[in-house]
Design goal:
The chain is mostly beta strands. The protein folds into two domains: 117 residues, no CATH class; 194 residues, Sandwich (Immunoglobulin-like), CATH 2.60.40. Helix content is 8%, strand content 37%. The chain has three helices and 24 strands. The strands form five sheets. Strands 2, 5, 6, 7, 10, 12, 13, 14, 17, 20 and 22 form an eleven-stranded mixed sheet that branches. The chain starts with a strand and ends with a strand. The relative contact order is 0.19. The C terminus is likely disordered. InterPro entries: Celegans_DevNeuronal_Protein, ZP_dom. This is ZP domain-containing protein.
């Protein structure tokens, strides 16, 4: 997916980046800026690469991919947020309805003489939009801020204000990776693998999930990526028992897998990044304890069933990276054998909000709107299947 953002001709713009990825070093997630045009190339195959969120309607098969682009300027300009959305149509289904005709009415059946229809109400539920955030106290932790191992943090996953009264949330699986070669499961079948490092998700009203955790890092990377699979259910998702409490997560060895939630409508795959590195002022004893707990997490992952790892729950970073390598010969016969499976459409939404407004309140920014900003979206086909 190629996204072109036409910036103002003046010099008020200072930075353009993907939400939550300010300072992220991967050049694939940075725009190419020429004069007043900023161009992003976002993969719809390896969605973890740059944190693209994917929403799948489990009934219709419709898929929606979205991200947010942040444009920062001077003090007068402020900051603008652009929502980029890509909609793919699911397959068409032929459904056959059968009607059984009865020759006689049931015993005691009585039809009312007068039938009065007082009202006819027709409506449609909104498509859910989810946000994932990490906080240290009241402060939002973004990709350009560094936290030390052992820092107490809280992850929040919440619905937009239009969807919150209708849907509920539940986290099925979550992984952490170093975005390179290492990955570990921290939520499996809805429950924490190691509650010391990452606690179970809890909720009060069903549309906001929170989980407390301690910052940890991989040896060869300062960036930690969280990859989660979130269920969106009508009204409220089913809770599961984990270590004596109801959570919107559980441990496989304690409870056998339960049946699928009958209220599940959407499945959302989303990611977030944090930057973790050692600080000279940090408590070395705490950092050493976290490192030991992280090694224990690796051992716990080895005890999980093989299919709990990236094989069929997640798209493994090893598989995804191999898929994302372009073909050296783009005009090869294998490309000619590919067929388009989905139709891509684009919509645009411009939002004005400061960083502090990220949350459930949905309050808008008091800064002036970005009048000269234009955004154009150009389709680059990336979702294909091989015959």
């Amino acid at each position: 997916m190629r996204v072109n953002v036409v910036l103002p001709s003046n010099d008020t713009t200072t930075n353009v980046y993907l939400e939550g990825m300010k300072g992220y070093p991967d050049p694939k997630c940075k725009p190419t800026v020429k004069d007043t045009l900023a161009e992003f190339q976002l993969s719809l195959v390896n969605i973890y690469e740059c944190g693209v969120t994917r929403v799948v309607n489990k009934i219709t098969g419709k898929k929606v991919f979205y991200h947010r682009i942040i444009i920062e300027g001077d003090q007068e300009f402020g900051k603008e947020v652009i929502s980029v959305k890509c909609i793919t149509n699911g397959p068409l289904y032929n459904v056959t309805h059968g009607i059984v005709k009865r020759d006689v009415l049931p015993a005691g059946f009585q039809e009312p003489e007068d039938l009065e229809i007082t009202s006819n109400i027709t409506g449609s539920a909104p498509e859910p939009s989810l946000t994932i955030a990490v906080r240290q106290g009241e402060n939002l932790v973004s990709g350009d801020l560094n936290v030390s191992p052992g820092t107490n943090l809280q992850m929040e996953i919440f619905l937009d204000k239009n969807s919150a009264p209708i849907y509920g949330l539940g986290v099925n699986y979550m992984q952490v990776t170093d975005t390179l070669t290492q990955e570990e499961t921290i939520i499996f079948n809805g429950c924490s693998v190691d509650p010391y490092l990452f606690e179970n998700f809890n909720t009060v009203d069903g549309d906001l999930l929170t989980a407390k955790f301690r910052a940890f890092k991989f040896p060869e990377s300062t960036f930690v990526q969280f990859r989660g699979t979130v269920n969106v259910c009508v009204d409220r998702c089913k809770g599961v028992y984990c270590q004596g409490q109801i959570a919107y997560g559980r441990k496989r060895r304690e409870i056998a897998p339960s049946a699928a939630d009958p209220n599940k409508i959407y499945e959302v795959t989303m990611t977030t990044f944090i930057k973790v590195d050692y600080d000279a002022a940090a408590d070395k004893g705490t950092a050493s304890e976290i490192d030991q707990k992280f090694r224990q997490l690796k051992l716990a992952n080895q005890k999980l069933a093989r299919n709990s790892r990236a094989g069929n729950v997640f798209e493994s970073i090893h598989v995804s990276s191999s898929k994302s390598v372009p073909d050296s010969n783009p005009s090869s016969s294998s490309e000619a054998a590919a067929k388009v499976e989905e139709t891509i459409l684009f919509t645009r939404e411009v939002i004005s909000q400061p960083e502090q407004s990220m949350g459930r309140s949905g309050s808008s920014s008091s800064r002036r709107p970005l009048l000269p900003l234009l955004a154009t979206f150009v389709l680059v086909l990336g979702v294909v299947t091989r015959l």
